[in-house]
Amino acid sequence: MKTSTEQKIDNQAVLGLLGTTNSLAYRVHEIEKHFHNTERWFGKSADQSGVNSWATSVSTGGMPTSFRAISGSNAFGGDANDEALVWGLYDTMGTDVKLDLHEIFVTASSVTSLWIIRIVYGSGTMADAITAGQYTDFPLIADAAVGGSIDVIVPVLMPRITIGTHKVWIQGKNATNNATIDFLVGGHSYAG
Fold first, then answer.
1. Are 28 and 61 in a shared domain?
2. Could you tell me where the beta strands, DSSP code E, fall in 58-163?
3. Phi-psi region of 146 (alpha: psi -120 to 50; beta: other; left: phi over 0)
4. Residue 53 has pLDDT above 60, yes or no
5. Has this prediction a pTM greater than 0.70?
6. How far apart are CA 78 and CA 59, in angstroms?
């Protein structure tokens, strides 16, 4: 009879995301958790100091307040608070230690033209994260009349971040200066 170290891999118990980072078992569990996980949707909290950005989950309490990003003229908004801080240092999802944004739900837009949405993530300032290339972006047209994304959930691809050390900001770029786009965010959290 084979010892436990000689058994096939499919007979071995693994720790998944609580095991060795980037091992085969870790990566398989990460994929499984991404597709078979709990998603929580959030709106803006009253505290936008960089500490607690999430509001209560949209499934509890009253109707959520949408986050808002403000564009510059053919640029991401350059004034203070033009970006939406959507994840602060003390935001949590239960006891999980990792998070990725999974989807955005556009609730309103002041214009019906092309937007570029940029999601920035990092442990320092937003400017430092952008310089380091720690962002993902995608286009959308917030006009349902032309097949756009208003009132539609838009999928997001980004790395998992560590809860308690990273923030997440969302910026919007539009041809119109001071255009606004409002949205809710949906996220996945992970044990390890």
1. no
2. 67-70, 75-76, 84-87, 98-109, 114-122, 135-141, 153-155, 161-162
3. alpha
4. no
5. yes
6. 33
Tell me the percentage of the chain whose pLDDT exceeds 70: 74
Over residues 31-41, the pLDDT tens digits come to: 776 666 677 88
Both 119 and 30 in one domain: the answer is no
Provide the residue range defining the domain that includes 18: 1-36
- 95 and 28 in a common domain: no
Asked whether residue 24 falls in the same domain as residue 100, the answer is: no
CA–CA dist 61, 81 (Å, integer)? 26
- How many Å apart are CA 128 and CA 121, to the nearest integer? 10
pLDDT at residue 46 in the model? 65
- State whether 32 and 51 are in the same domain: no
> Which amino acid makes up residue 104?
I
Q: Rounded CA gap, 37 and 117, in Å? A: 25
